[in-house]
User: Fold these one by one.
Assistant:
Number 1:
Amino acid sequence: MMQVFMPLNFLGFVYREMKGAMTNIENMFAILDVTPRIVDQGGATELKVGDGEIVFRDVHFGYGDDREIISGVDFTVPSKKKVAIVGSSGAGKSTLFKLLFRFYDPASGDISIDGQSIRNVSQASLRGSIGVVPQDTVLFNTSIFENVRYGRIDATDEEVREAIRLAYLSDFIASLPKGEATMVGERGLKLSGGEKQRVSIARALLKHPPIMVFDEATSSLDSHSEKIILKAIREISHQQTTLVIAHRLSTIMDADRIIVLDKGRVAEQGGHAELLTKGGLYAHLWEVQQHEQAAPAGKMD
Ligand code: ATP
């Protein structure tokens, strides 16, 4: 299925994860990024996701004892709504994602999904319920079609094609001489950042988890790719609870709620228009980005 170009123990890990929790491949790489230090509690239950409401309640966290990175964060991601987290570089956006995946536990406070504290559920069931579209998608040395299938390895060819269509990848694939059989990844065609992110979106659509997490690419995509990706994210967020880390405010104007993070605290939250009227931090960030738009790097950090 996959040509060997990675260490065998690593592949063993991947296969075990796939067979076990059917975790999205993206999750596995995220998992591998950090040393596992959290273990399931004795008697951990399986997370049962119904509506998919996520609640952060008075969450405090620091990577070491010396510096608190997240300081009393409270917010809710309502079921099937799209919530965006914005804030300048180092505000703690990615840290909130790591806490949601339980790569770390908060020092105090709680994170729950549909009323179940994530501390009390198995990590496999937690990560199996969340799909991730990371900033940089890992591609395997196989065809683009099989790369999409990693979202759900037992998906039928028709399901894979439907995900490709919904992620607006069909035209791109049709333009390749070998079409869906085109090899990508390490020894194949190199995809652009936007194309890779669409592969990741297609995987997520195939997996169809109740909760989706997007980490918007920090590097600017060209405006055509960005528009396509936004359309694909919109498709997903109508059906699933969606949390987005956004670097460009223009991409999340339609979010149901925007959480503005500043030095690990929620400085303000609300809809785009509401936050602009307030004239606070969001309005300031918006103004800065409007000025930057003329320059090529129109993003916050
Ligand atoms: P960016 O937009 O630049 O990605 P961010 O808002 O996502 O930033 P985080 O990555 O959450 O910010 O980082 C918040 C703070 O935590 C930063 O000061 C960072 O240096 C620190 N930090 C992040 N990861 C670690 C780690 N593994 N160990 C120690 N400190 C860390």
Number 2:
Amino acid sequence: MKPLLSKWGRSIAVATSLSIAAFMSPTLMAGEEMEVGSVAVQANIAGLERVTQTLVAPPFLPKHDQVAKGGPKIVAMTMEIVEKEMEIAEDVFVQAMTFEGSNPGPMIVVHQDDYVELTLKNPATNTMVHNIDFHASTGALGGGGLTNIAPGQQVVLRFKATKAGVFVYHCAPGGSMIPYHVVSGMNGAIMVLPRDGLKDENGKLTTYDKAYYIGEQDWYVPYDAEEDEYKRYGSAAEAMGETFEVMKTLTPTHLTFNGKVGAITGENAMTAKVGESVLFIHSQANRDSRVHLIGGHGDLVWQGGSFNDTPATSLETWAVAGGEATAAMYTFLQPGLYAYVNHNLIEAILLGAAAHVSVEGEWNNDLMEQVEKPGPIK
Ligand code: CU
């Protein structure tokens, strides 16, 4: 078995020594199948109950128990990789790569010590090699080294969810294809709940009435100055060269919450009622962010996304490092339309990193009251 680092280093070296034109071959940078070597421990799954999880498009989560019933299970699910053109803002199109056709990909929910068994399918109609790297897993590049599949192939990966928290997953097929696939939309998150549920700052069980998954995505869309419009391409391979040039500026042209500017606003806004506790899971697979609920707070915030750590309390804004997911819980106390934003307000308002929560209920004058309406200065 070749040392991991040399394999990784070589693929990066190859990526930087070739011209962009060389990347037009969709399979050139594909990772190789990794050999795991001699096996010392076999999977401890004999007799475990097997359940199937039906994945749903974000911001929703699959049906799940907050406190696990019974012992560890094998939780099986299927994801299909979908390469497709997506409109990420009005009249702005990208050649997206997605898990299950959405950006972000669907949230998976299990409990600590459950086994996740994913069947990953890369339909023959796709053009690229893909795989999946689960930050919640252990070994083989997060599973990326064992899941490289060409169009027309499928693979089954099983891993034990040993760490409780929220974690990113993303495609990582090797070399420059890693950032290209990630910023083309190919990422999502998994929530691994403690078996006995979430705990507040005092270690007491706490539950949510609703949970939403917000996947923040940075996009790098080439611009045609002569035509004064964003460029549109026929395929991901065709878009690659010019997109790389924009990516290297590290300045996204668009930032979206769930695949399109304004996706979680208006009729698609998140909803809650006064008195309800809402868990917001926020992921960013590539770039730092900072989440703020305007007019509310993070009552409990699992910084870095780890559920076995004591949550921080009463935060105004919480950081999301590139490559992680975080979770924050808030009990709404006032009705109205709340903006849920990346609090770099340029990124929120001018680039698109904003969503809405529509909260029903009755106003509390003790918390806030307009004592006098706006009027002439006296
Ligand atoms: Cu991919």
